[in-house]
Write a structure and sequence with these properties.
The protein is of the alpha+beta class. The chain is built from 3 helices and 10 strands. The chain has one domain: Cyclophilin-like (Cyclophilin, Beta Barrel).
Length: 191
């Protein structure tokens, strides 16, 4: 009996240590299903901080995946279902793409304009290894896109979104014909 108590105490301690060291995790509920993301603050601290801030304050609620390119990526977080850009209150981020993480299948990275330091709220999930999006050099053409997390559950949902029919909406291309709505992003763990 005494050995059983010791074993239970060790197991409980191990579980508590694992929970204490767990990476930040968010659950993204979409109208196509649930996607769970593990974030990498040790590699992209400012990006993760801003993503969690936006999630905590409900910014992503009712935004959509507005750019879907099967075999490449799905992008969302900045537009509503009417394709109106949501007002962003957070500052542009310093690009953290030189963090050693690669744009591989299932990773989550920040979308941006041609300015390497223009990412704010939009993100994308890679559908395949997209090496050309990785950091190569500290100039505008080689800076790359900051990977800050990965899909740990729901890649089947991501793949389902990748297959939705798309078309043009105004001057935007690759827009789902039926909106793929991000209903909410819930923080499961902030550690």
């Amino acid at each position: 009996m005494n050995n059983m108590k010791k074993l239970l105490a060790i197991a409980a301690g191990t579980l508590m240590a694992a929970i204490a060291w767990a990476a930040p995790t968010v659950e993204m509920q979409t109208n196509q299903g649930k996607i769970t993301l593990e974030l990498f603050p040790e590699k992209a601290s400012k990006t993760v901080e801003m993503f969690l801030y936006n999630a905590k304050h409900g910014f992503y609620e009712s935004t959509i995946f507005h750019r879907v390119i099967d075999g490449f990526m799905i992008q969302g977080g900045g537009f509503n279902a009417a394709m109106e850009e949501k007002k962003v209150l957070t500052p542009a981020l310093q690009n953290e793409a030189a963090n050693g993480l690669a744009n591989t299948r299932g990773t989550v990275a920040m979308a941006r304009t041609a300015d390497p330091h223009s990412a704010r709220v939009q993100f994308f999930i890679n559908l395949k290894d997209n090496d050309f999006l990785n950091h190569r050099s500290p100039d505008p053409r080689g800076y790359g896109y900051t990977v800050f997390g990965k899909v740990v559950q729901g890649m089947d949902v991501v793949d389902k979104i990748a297959k939705v029919p798309t078309g043009n909406h105004g001057h935007y291309e690759n827009v789902p014909q039926t909106p793929v709505v991000i209903q909410n992003v819930k923080i499961i763990s902030e550690k």
